[in-house]
Design goal:
Helix content is about 40%, strand content about 15%. Helix 2 crosses helix 3 and helix 6 crosses helix 7. The chain has 9 helices and 8 strands. Helix 4 links the parallel strand 3 and strand 4. It is α/β, with parallel strands linked by helices. The structure holds pyridoxal-5'-phosphate (PLP). The site of pyridoxal-5'-phosphate (PLP) has 15 residues, from strand 8 and helix 9.
Length: about 230
């Protein structure tokens, strides 16, 4: 078998620099850098990019669209990788996503529970919170979070990790992330003391997310460069 081409040196440099900046930001904000998982979001990119990232030691891959994610995870077939589904879940696809996703970040409405629960291998989930007044943005309203958490805890086959959020376009990300942390402390932890993880922070706002306690950064373009097709 011919040896694979080594990963693109620019990709390697971006990954190395980002890792260094995350570690630096963690030190600066009194966080333990080892408690922060970098999820490399590879939507719209070919499977080869994921293989390259795996060769660079990236273990967590994020995807946002089915069936692209299904095809890619099958094509890469790299058992050391953990696949994170971060995009909005359609009810009629959720069961299929569960089959390859190790972690679902976008549990954003109670009706998905019926579809995702079951006696299979447990799947780890984040409940997505909607911090805007626009119900179309996806996510559970803060006032409904407690009920949602209780339902997730009662659903067989789901393991609650914590909360996920996407900062609004015009928002100040630091303030939104602080609100997510506050919701975790006040609503989630009393019900589920083990579910303290926070999936928040993208290419443009991850330093604020680290400062507010993010445990999972979902970073696309800062690693991959621009996506081949506009998202
Ligand atoms: C695409 C995407 C990301 C990564 O976005 P970048 O700005 O490219 O870092 C993170 N989270 C979700 C939900 C996404 O859809």
């Amino acid at each position: 078998m011919a040896p694979r081409k080594p990963p693109d040196p620019e990709l390697a440099a971006r990954v190395a620099e980002l890792r260094e900046r995350i570690a630096e930001r963690a030190r600066e904000t009194g966080r333990d850098g080892d408690a922060i998982t970098l999820v490399a979001v590879t939507k719209f990119h070919p499977p080869e990019l994921v293989t390259d990232l795996a060769a660079l030691g990236v273990r967590d891959i994020g995807e946002s669209r089915h069936p692209e994610a299904a095809q890619k995870s099958a094509a890469v077939a790299e058992p050391s990788l953990r696949w994170h589904f971060v995009g909005q879940l359609q009810s009629n696809k959720a069961r299929l996503v569960r089959a390859y996703a190790d972690v679902i970040h976008s549990l954003d409405r109670p009706s998905l529970l019926r579809v995702l629960e079951g006696p299979d291998e447990p799947v780890s989930v984040f409940v997505q919170v909607n911090l805007t007044d626009d119900p179309g943005r996806g996510g559970v309203a803060p006032g409904e979070l407690g009920v949602m958490v209780e339902r997730v805890l009662a659903a067989p086959g789901l393991r609650l990790l914590g909360l996920m959020a996407v900062a609004g376009r015009d928002a100040e990300p630091g303030r939104e992330f602080a609100r997510v942390r506050e919701l975790r402390d006040r609503v989630v932890l009393p019900l589920a003391p083990g579910a303290g993880s926070l999936s928040m922070g993208m290419s443009g706002d991850w330093p604020d997310a680290v400062a507010e306690g993010a445990t999972h950064l979902r970073i696309g373009t800062a690693i991959t460069g621009n996506r081949p097709i506009a998202a």
